[in-house]
């Protein structure tokens, strides 16, 4: 490979177990957003964390505008990590656009993965009436891009509050704002355009892996109607409605997030054992 993948994506490996579980952040975030959740899996799993190129402690020199102009570029990085670590049957946990990145990776190399866990996923953020409502009009997203160009700090403050949508957890909005502000604005702008104008609706019926959708309440980024749309079109899926508000339950409601993931994985394991007897 062109660069050391572990260095490029700042890959971190923790845990005492052998079964791999891979955590993928959402837009504009690095692996530290999983700190409240990933620890709960270290006793039983091989926990793998990483940063997208341009985020966190990744190798910024590896950033390529053309490669990362589509989600395929980010999915390829996930596959590179899987190859480098010789993963097989990994559980992929993705937040927001990280869910779609994992889904794309699983379609290209399904043997690397055993299941997908999607937190606040959306296959398309744009409205396409009358059949699909992703939550945003094109003009709104263009406005978002324009604000990033003209006043990045102001955008970071506003968007962090929009994402969390939870007055009870102001510290989460502050954490997100800090992460946005620590990212190169040009890289963040490129990722935003790649993320918010992607359309992966046609990929959903092709997914072969069992998939859990964790749907938050009052999530303006990935509304309930989007989670239900995905649940209807993914061949083997389960949707769980969370008490958590907003778009970042792994940060605002880690205990509920951990409990629902564990519950789902235990269910899959019992079904697997049941199928063998």
Automatic annotation (TrEMBL):
Q: Name one Pfam family in it.
A: Abhydrolase_6
Name all AB hydrolase-1 domain ranges: 21-259
State the superkingdom: Bacteria
Q: Which family does it belong to?
A: Belongs to the AB hydrolase superfamily.
Q: What is this protein called?
A: Sigma-B regulation protein RsbQ
Organism per entry = Sediminibacillus halophilus
């Amino acid at each position: 490979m062109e660069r050391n993948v572990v260095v490029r994506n700042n890959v971190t490996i923790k845990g005492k177990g052998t079964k791999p579980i891979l955590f993928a952040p959402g837009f504009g975030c690095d692996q530290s957003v999983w700190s409240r959740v990933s620890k709960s899996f270290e006793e039983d799993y091989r926990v793998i964390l990483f940063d997208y190129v341009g985020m966190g402690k990744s190798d910024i020199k590896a950033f390529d505008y053309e490669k990362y102009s589509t989600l395929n570029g980010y999915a390829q990085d996930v596959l590179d990590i899987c190859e480098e670590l010789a993963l097989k049957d990994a559980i992929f946990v993705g937040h927001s656009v990280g869910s779609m990145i994992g889904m794309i990776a699983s379609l290209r190399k399904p043997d690397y993965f055993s299941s997908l866990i999607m937190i606040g996923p959306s296959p398309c953020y744009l409205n396409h009436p009358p059949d699909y409502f992703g939550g945003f009009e094109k003009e709104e997203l263009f406005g978002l891009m324009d604000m990033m160009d003209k006043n990045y700090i102001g955008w970071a403050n506003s968007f962090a509050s929009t994402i969390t949508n939870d007055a009870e957890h102001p510290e989460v909005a502050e954490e997100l704002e800090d992460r946005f502000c620590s990212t190169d604005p040009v890289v963040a702008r490129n990722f935003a355009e790649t993320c918010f104008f992607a359309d992966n609706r046609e990929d959903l019926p092709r997914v072969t892996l069992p998939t859990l959708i964790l749907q938050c309440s009052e999530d303006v980024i990935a509304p309930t109607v989007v989670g239900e749309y995905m649940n209807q079109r993914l061949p083997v899926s389960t949707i769980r409605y969370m008490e958590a508000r907003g778009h970042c339950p792994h940060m605002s409601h880690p205990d509920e997030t951990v409990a629902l993931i564990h519950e789902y994985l235990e269910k899959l394991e019992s079904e697997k054992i049941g199928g063998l007897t």
